[in-house]
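The step that takes the researchers longest sounds almost clerical: writing a folded protein down as plain text. The outcome of that step, for a single protein, is printed below.
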Amino acid sequence: MSESYVKEDSSYTIGVEFGSKIVNVGGKSVKLQIWDTAGQERFRSVTKGYYRGAAGALLVYDITSRDSFNALSTWLADTKSLASPNIVILLVGNKKDLEQEREVTFLEASKFAQENELMFMETSAKTGECVEEAFLKCSKSILAKIEVGELEPDRLGSGIQYGDSKLRHLNREGQSSRQSDCLCRM
């Protein structure tokens, strides 16, 4: 989902794929390390280790697949039990371009997100609609948690690093220091 476009004949993720993406959030360059764990049950034992040290997670389901949506409870439980308690989680309904094949309503997914205290949005990886916004939304939330002290970049396993180790310190008044580069693991 992190590519700027998806080809018609693109393959599904098998196992785990890794990529990185740089987004600009409030004048700061944020490099995201993205681990796509496919969400397939047969890879579940392999993917559990990728939650540790993640600052954010995008739980993506297919709006045209009831089974995909129903599996969210399991993936959310894994995320909450294996990741930091302050991990930022964004629920993402994908394939927004296939509205006529929708099996999961926007309202139903929105309710699930609200009940589980998740952010929520829908995207289309095929057309690129709202894909960039999903990464920006998650990144903004991670940076906001850093600024209010809910996420501590200096804590081992936080999933966050600043590009310059001299700039890791955040001002206690809630204003960030002059750092311009941040690395977040998702």
